[in-house]
Amino acid sequence: MTIARFWLAGFMLALPSVAPAKTWSNITAYPIPTASCGLWGITAGPDGALWFVEYGANKIGRITTSGGITEYPLATASSGPTGITAGPDGALWFTEYYGNNIGRITTAGAITEYPVPTAYSLPYGITAGPDDALWFTEQSSNNIGRITTSGGITEYPVPTAASAPYGIVAGPDGALWFTEFYANKIGRITTAGAITAEYPTPTAFSYPNGIAAGPDGALWFTEWQVNKIGRITTSGMMTEYQVPGSPKGGPSGIAAGPDGALWFVDPEIGRITTAGVITEYPAPASLPLGITAGPDGALWFTESESNNIARAPACGLGLSASFANGTLTMNFNLGIDTPATWYATLHTGTGGVKRLWSKPIPAVVPPDSFTRTFGPGFPNLGDVTILSGLETAGEGLCYETVTVNTAQ
Fold first, then answer.
1. Which residues of 127-149 are buried (b: 16+ CB within 10 A; e: fewer)?
2. Under 8 Å CB-to-CB from 66, ≥6 apart: which residues?
């Protein structure tokens, strides 16, 4: 989008001003039939539905994009399913943390369990590899595991002792990349089982957790202890981005969104562009843990505290603003995967409201970085709040606000 300059004439309108929240996303929550089920990982299935694990209830769940939920109990008692992914065979594959199994469930609900050779290995993260196998992490036994779709398992030890491998994902280089929670490293393993590198995170005691392949050819990961999002290139170069403080802990799950940004969960739903611009949207009293892109172009995530599966639109504005030399400057990192109406309003402390613009826009993928200015000659209105949002068919998708002092 291009830079635009506007002049504000006849600003003050006799309209009521409602103080908006800092950010908002149109989140829809779907309650799980089983109470206190202990939701954890979630993934998109090959059947156009979302599949998730119930760590506490010992079940695998399925939810349609319209909210219909089915639950399937596991044969192994108290197995503690955690990670889940779509396999190359048209089934879903998952880890059983306490059951020490790798599980497989068809889209019809038929379940098979395969024991991990090393006892008490605590399998956690799982992903589909480029070799048509599934790869998983073993936290306690410090291994990376590989399982074929016929159930054959091979284990590869991580060189750093007691590293607690956690998340794992297929990288753009044909290898698998994983996080080492206690070792504070990002590891790389080839499909032949060679662990070629372990890269320390720049921040000590960061406890890297979830990991995802980004649209920019890099890997993105969460750093739970220090509340950061990390980026690592396939050559091992790292960058860290600080997430605004969270009251209950740091970020955990992360996934590439359909809007060309990365989305993560901490006590809120977070969005980070590949340029490092972070926005968080409230998910009150939900404590989300897992997140994935759905087949409907939205983000789907597990709410472990409120016992819901939730859906949020993949839209963000990355709004910030400043005022200098009589000019109000608004910066955007706007992205959305569907056409929408983009609007902005300006609110004063005395109750004045001015609609700055409202215009249809096409899908913006990846997010676009641009600036809009008002001035020079912007009037002295003291503190003003800018609200900008996206909507479609009259329904709000998301908005963000920022307050700036325009005193001359």
1. bbbebebbbbbbbbbbbbbbbeb
2. none
Going by pLDDT thresholds of 50, 70 and 90, the confidence category of residue 16 is very low
Q: Is the distance from CB of 144 to CB of 138 less than 8 angstroms?
A: yes
- Torsion 221-223-228-231 (CA) sign: negative
Q: Which domains does the chain have, with CATH numbers?
A: 4-24+317-405 (2.60.40.10), 28-312 (2.130.10.10)
Which amino acid, 325? N
- Rounded CA gap, 169 and 210, in Å? 9
What the block records as the tokens of 234 is 């396939």
**Tokens coding 94:** 């998952």
Torsion of CA 164, 167, 171, 177, to 10 degrees: 0
> Dihedrals φ, ψ of 334, to 5°?
-90, 135
The better pLDDT of the pair 364, 2 is held by 364
Express each pLDDT in 242-262 by its tens digit: 998 655 568 999 999 999 999
Neighbours of 296 (CB within 10 A): 17
